[in-house]
Specification:
- With 270 residues, this protein is of the alpha+beta class.
- Helix content is 29%, strand content 36%.
- The strands form four sheets. The protein has a seven-stranded mixed β-sheet, with helices on both faces.
């Protein structure tokens, strides 16, 4: 965090109720969450909503994310601080991305890494890839009509140190023109976002989802959903009480974490 201090952004530790928070600027706070700390999703959501009413984005930054994805965390924070170089979307060209390049880009620059998708496109300034999005191809939803096709936006990321003004909307327009979906669905992680970027592009909030529980393997700090844990551990966890869960996980070198839920958005195109 010393980098921010050197650029004139004074970080400040503040106490709110029982929480130690980092005040980055009047509209951005960070809540560092230790793996050995205590907390419940409902309490974290209440904290989040308190600051949201004041026009403040509160980020829940878990210890394992900071350890394993520090470069990506700092990239997000640089953008919030306005420290990045700004390029205009009109300076870039849209091109399809081969999967190896898309994988490398998202693993390097997206907080959640790469996810398998059927459509991957990027913005290039000359030969340099500066932003990328991935989508799934539209699928027919017969329950909504004979010609209702829904698709999903799965990732958007920019290169470190760069903001592409209008870049996200340019990639979105390219995808819509080529595939002509009826709607596009996407998610915002409430730990990190209030969904403002989607609201600006006329996405509608259609669902606020419940918190999602995950499991951190402490020796590696890697996160896993329940269905990707070792089968033996899943079988054990299925038989223990809520009270016994932390102790059993500790014996197996795991701990349980959670996010504060996801915001589900839809962009309706026709």
């Amino acid at each position: 965090m010393d980098y921010f201090q050197s650029r004139g952004h004074q970080l400040q530790w503040v106490i709110y109720e029982d929480f130690q928070l980092i005040k980055c600027h009047p509209h951005l706070y960070i809540h560092p969450v230790h793996l050995k700390g205590e907390g419940q999703p409902a309490i974290f959501i209440k904290l989040q909503e308190h600051f949201q009413k004041k026009g403040v984005l509160l980020i829940h930054l878990w210890e394992d994310i900071w350890i394993n994805r520090r470069f990506q965390v700092l990239n997000r924070l640089y953008a919030h601080f306005g420290l990045n170089q700004v390029l205009h979307g009109r300076e870039t060209l849209v091109k399809a991305l081969p999967t190896p390049l898309a994988r490398q880009f998202f693993e390097t620059y997206h907080l959640q890494g790469y996810v398998k998708s059927s459509v991957q496109i990027g913005l290039f300034k000359g030969e340099e890839l500066v932003a990328a999005s991935s989508f799934n191809k539209p699928i027919l939803l017969p329950s909504k009509g004979k010609s209702y096709y829904s698709s999903e936006l799965t990732r958007f990321a920019t290169k470190a140190g760069v903001n592409v003004s209008g870049g996200f909307s340019k990639l979105l327009r390219h995808y819509v023109k080529k595939f002509q979906p009826t709607d596009i669905m996407t998610y915002a992680d409430r730990d990190w976002s209030l969904g403002e970027v989607y609201k600006k592009l006329h996405f509608e909030l259609t669902e606020t989802q419940q918190p999602w529980f995950l499991y951190v393997h402490l020796p590696t700090m890697n996160r896993f959903p329940f269905n990707r844990l070792p089968l033996s551990l899943r079988s054990t966890l299925a038989t223990v009480s809520v009270e016994a869960l932390p102790g059993v996980l500790k014996e197996k070198n795991y701990c349980q974490v959670f996010n504060t839920g996801n915001l589900k958005y839809h962009l309706y195109l026709r």
